[in-house]
């Protein structure tokens, strides 16, 4: 297969970038699938000292990236007392 690729590349030099980017894409996809197969790397929370970190957030804490019309300081507190 590789020998055939080299023969085609010698006859048609315009195929060299196509072979390069195809190899790059296949390699990148393979590395990404290997990364996914190794396990879930979603969070690195400390499960011993703080098993539920989201429960310690204040209800008025602004954790959104953009809040155009919402003033989080004047929100009614709807959660457990801290």
From TrEMBL:
It comes from the Eukaryota. The keyword Transmembrane applies. InterPro entries: B12D (IPR010530). The chain crosses the membrane at residues 15-34. Keywords: Membrane, Transmembrane, Transmembrane helix. This is Cytochrome c oxidase subunit NDUFA4. It comes from Pundamilia nyererei.
């Amino acid at each position: 297969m590789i020998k055939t690729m080299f023969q085609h590349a010698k006859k048609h030099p315009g195929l060299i970038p196509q072979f390069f980017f195809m190899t790059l894409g296949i390699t990148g996809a393979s590395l990404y699938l290997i990364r996914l197969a190794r396990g879930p790397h979603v969070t690195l929370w400390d499960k011993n000292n703080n098993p539920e970190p989201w429960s310690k957030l204040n209800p008025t804490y602004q954790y959104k990236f953009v809040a155009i019309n919402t003033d989080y300081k004047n929100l009614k507190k709807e959660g457990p007392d801290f």
